[in-house]
TrEMBL record:
Record's keyword terms, sorted: Chromatin regulator, DNA recombination, DNA-binding, Endonuclease, Hydrolase, Metal-binding, Multifunctional enzyme, Nuclease, Nucleus, Transferase, Ubl conjugation pathway, Zinc, Zinc-finger
Protein name: V(D)J recombination-activating protein 1
Highest taxon above the source species: Eukaryota
Example GO BP: chromatin organization
Cofactor(s) demanded: Mn(2+); Mg(2+)
Entries under Gene3D superfamilies matching the protein: 6.10.140.510, Classic Zinc Finger (3.30.160.60)
Domain comment (free text): The NBD (nonamer binding) DNA-binding domain mediates the specific binding to the nonamer RSS motif by forming a tightly interwoven homodimer that binds and synapses 2 nonamer elements, with each NBD making contact with both DNA molecules. Each RSS is composed of well-conserved heptamer (consensus 5'-CACAGTG-3') and nonamer (consensus 5'-ACAAAAACC-3') sequences separated by a spacer of either 12 bp or 23 bp.
Keyword Glycosyltransferase attached: no
Chemical reaction(s) catalysed: S-ubiquitinyl-[E2 ubiquitin-conjugating enzyme]-L-cysteine + [acceptor protein]-L-lysine = [E2 ubiquitin-conjugating enzyme]-L-cysteine + N(6)-ubiquitinyl-[acceptor protein]-L-lysine
DNA-binding region as annotated in the record: 39-106
Organism: Dendrocopos major
Length: 310
């Protein structure tokens, strides 16, 4: 209830109104405004009631909200109530709670996005079990699921693998398989035998080149659009785009030192990869460069084509 006294205008909880009004000594006829209890139990605060009593108390309001929702919001009572709650929180400067509620309303949840959690796990060098331990601890201590569970991270990881994004080449490429499944294969299959005929067995995880390239470009979508905006090419999406790629092959040292537990293995690991060096777009008679890799030798921009144990 808003206090009727001039220059006070304070909002007081229903139960504390009488007590507040009696503090205005200067006010005559204050009995006019004080709450009259007509006997029986005093009204309890809405939030302390049982769910049934809350329903009973709010029946009339609920009917009005329902009528409003049907008239204005296509019958979405939940949206009306959530928005009312949001406005009430903002009016009281409860912005943290309001932000959390807004996130839930937009389906984001108040936690971090799985892709963000994946980035945190990779950049802090946490193994799956270490990450899971942190996830459980944070959930138990804070009572909120801020980090996402491992299965959500795995789903986010799939979107980063070659073959995830549908695409077609125009004109179609010749002699390229349409199968984009990632397979475990003999990594040297298709290569002519080396000069010294060293008998080496390999096992490799190999991605199809064009599928890996599409995945890399899809991953860079934001940078490409930013670059186009910088060159005032916002609406120009027809291409053709020229993509310059550097291919590389890198030995990854002795794996036995890296995989921790288990038996020592004599293998060497090799990675065939490529880096997108720059992207240009033909515009009129000139070619405008819309992306350039600043650190072309960094492993962060290195996209794998084939990971092989030899």
């Amino acid at each position: 209830i808003r206090c009727p006294v001039k220059e006070c205008d304070e909002e007081i909880l229903h139960g504390k109104y009488g007590q507040h009004i009696s503090s205005h000594k200067e006010m005559k006829d204050r009995e006019l405004y004080s709450h009259i209890n007509k006997g029986g139990r005093p009204r309890q605060h809405l939030l302390s009631l049982t769910r049934r009593a809350q329903k009973h108390r709010l029946r009339e309001l609920k009917r009005q909200v329902k009528a409003f929702a049907e008239k204005e919001e296509g019958g979405d009572i939940k949206a009306v109530c959530m928005t009312l709650f949001l406005l009430a929180l903002r009016a009281k400067n409860e912005h943290r709670q309001a932000d959390e509620l807004e996130a839930i309303m937009q389906g984001r949840g108040s936690g971090l996005h799985p892709a963000v959690c994946l980035a945190i796990r990779v950049n802090t060098f946490l193994s799956c079990s270490q990450y899971h331990k942190m996830y459980r601890t944070v959930k138990a201590v804070s009572g909120r699921q801020i980090f996402q569970p491992l299965h959500a991270l795995r789903a986010a990881e799939k979107a980063l693998l070659p073959g995830y994004h549908p695409f077609e080449w125009k004109p179609p490429l010749k002699n390229v398989s349409t199968n984009i499944e990632v397979g475990i294969i003999d990594g040297l299959s298709g290569l002519p035998i080396s000069i010294d005929d060293y008998p080496v067995d390999t096992i490799a995880k190999r991605f199809r080149y064009d599928a890996a390239l599409v995945c890399a470009l899809k991953d860079m979508e934001e940078e490409i659009l930013e670059g186009m905006k910088a060159k005032n090419l916002d609406d120009y999406l027809n291409g053709p785009f020229t993509v310059v790629i550097k291919e590389s092959c890198d030995g990854m040292g002795d794996v036995s030192e890296k995989h921790g537990s288990g038996p020592a293995v004599p293998e060497k690991a090799v990675r065939f990869s490529f880096t997108v060096m720059n992207i240009a777009i033909a515009h009129g008679n000139e070619s405008k460069r819309i992306f350039e890799e600043v650190k072309p030798n960094s492993e962060l921009c290195c996209k794998p084509l084939c990971l092989m144990l030899a």
